[in-house]
Write a structure and sequence with these properties.
Low-confidence stretches: 222-238, 349-369
Strand content: 15-25%
Bound molecules: NADP nicotinamide-adenine-dinucleotide phosphate
Number of helices: 13
């Protein structure tokens, strides 16, 4: 099927992928989708899913055709994801494609959700439309574009991306009195973009006790930072903020923490265990936190997914990251390596576990005496990319593909 795609077909599909990117951070739990309509080699319409609840890419591209005064009858539509056949927040795209008289549809990737799974392409074929599914690089790019959506659809859990920053000597915590940062400003700007693109951010209570973080997505101050065109980064301060999640089995989150003082920016969910003191739980609830009871990471992830959260950005620290790793929950890791050597073990004050090697972690973990995870947890990445971000090196490693 895909063998019949020409170089021009693939170029149009790549353009549709570019368009799809423009919805990043705005459409979850829906997928990112882009569409291009081409007649006689000429692009006559383009569209993408821009905001949750608004037009799907196919309808947006057809609307663009109409606005340009172009007739899509007999044209080819390139779309990054199989068109939907069900009514959700929007009517089915298949109907719009059939009504518009599109003659051929080239699809970047399948939609693994139960209500889709090939129904749209079948209905198009039944309606006399030629349908082709891409293979190769463009198909891979179309699948990678929607990893959170795909994992959520296939497993009922959010995609987990672990972010870490470390020094050349493998340290992830800073000694008291030093600069609070390991990575450079450009890397930190990127982290804010990733936060803005995530449905939820998670840390362990050790990180909250040590750093008292805000965990909001904030707009970078430096003008040198160039967000991708259409990026939602500019909306950092006023746009959609991720849910902030603290894994805190004993409900130790301080009532005067920055997290609880900034609930108007975004809600805070505290994942606790049965062991948590009822009085502490009541105090956290009174302070405005939401409480989730989950003994295991797996259960917490399933619960987050039920809330339509498709992506979780795990910001550490090392103890929680190791626990996620041990439960096989990490899909992707993004690690910054800064050209810095710290060369000492002491961590900053604040009560968090400061261990920067597994030995140190188990010696200091938890601040509340929780054991560090044990046993082999080694995972080898399926793929990895290396790039320079300011003075840092960023390694992105993908462990699973959905
Ligand atoms: N370099 C980086 O990228 C980076 C990122 C984040 C943090 N840090 C640094 O890391 C240090 C904190 O490290 P940390 O390891 O203590 O922090 P952490 O991993 O954020 O928190 C650890 C705590 O999480 C709680 N927890 C809840 N559920 C858990 C589970 N299922 N498994 C394991 N733990 C669970 C445990 O306390 P309970 O048993 O009481 O629940 C545990 O002690 C800070 O100095 C911070 O600055 C560095």
């Amino acid at each position: 099927m895909a063998a019949s795609l020409t170089t021009a077909d693939l170029a149009h599909l790549r353009r549709a992928l570019e368009l799809a990117e423009l919805g990043r951070g705005r459409v979850s739990p829906n997928p990112l989708v882009g569409a291009v309509v081409v007649r006689d080699g000429e692009v006559i319409g383009e569209g993408y899913h821009a905001e949750l609840g608004e037009l799907h890419a196919e309808r947006a591209a057809l609307k663009d055709c109409a606005e340009r005064g172009e007739d899509p009858r007999g044209a080819t539509m390139y779309v990054t994801l199989e068109p939907c056949a069900h009514t959700g927040r929007q009517p089915p795209c298949v109907e719009a494609i059939l009504e518009a008289g599109i003659g051929r549809v080239v699809i970047g990737s399948d939609d693994p959700s139960e209500k889709a799974s090939g129904r749209g392409p079948r209905m198009l074929r039944d309606g006399g439309v030629e349908v082709e599914l891409a293979a190769g690089e463009e198909a891979t790019a179309a699948r990678l574009l929607n990893q959170p959506f795909r994992k959520h659809a296939r497993t009922g859990q959010p995609l987990v991306t672990l972010k870490m920053a470390m020094t050349l000597d493998g340290r992830t915590t800073i000694p008291e009195g030093d600069s609070p940062w390991i990575s450079g400003p450009e890397s930190r700007d990127l982290v804010h973009r990733w936060r803005a693109e995530s449905d939820a951010i998670a840390v362990g209570i050790g990180t909250v006790l040590a750093d008292d973080p805000l965990l909001t997505a904030r707009r970078p101050a430096r003008s040198s930072f160039a967000p991708q065109s259409g990026s939602n980064l500019d909306r950092g301060a006023e746009g959609r903020q991720p849910l902030r999640v603290v894994f805190d089995r004993q409900a130790r989150l301080p009532l005067d923490s920055q997290l609880l003082r900034t609930l108007d920016a975004s809600p805070v969910l505290v994942v606790v265990s049965q062991a948590a003191d009822q009085g502490r739980l009541a105090a956290l609830r009174d302070a405005g936190a939401e409480i989730l009871l989950a003994e295991e990471i797996d259960g917490a992830l399933t619960d987050l997914s039920r809330r339509s959260l498709t992506s979780l950005f795990l910001e550490g620290g090392r103890t929680l990251a190791s626990a996620f790793l041990a439960s096989g929950a990490i899909d992707e890791a993004r690690t910054f390596i800064a050209p810095v050597i710290l060369g000492q073990i002491a961590s900053r004050a604040g009560g968090g576990a400061g261990g920067t090697t597994p030995e140190e972690a188990s010696a200091t973990a938890g601040g509340g005496g929780s054991p560090a995870p044990t046993g082999p947890a080694r995972q080898v990445a399926l793929s990895r990319e290396v790039e320079e971000i300011g003075n840092d090196v960023l390694i992105t490693a993908r462990f699973k593909e959905w």
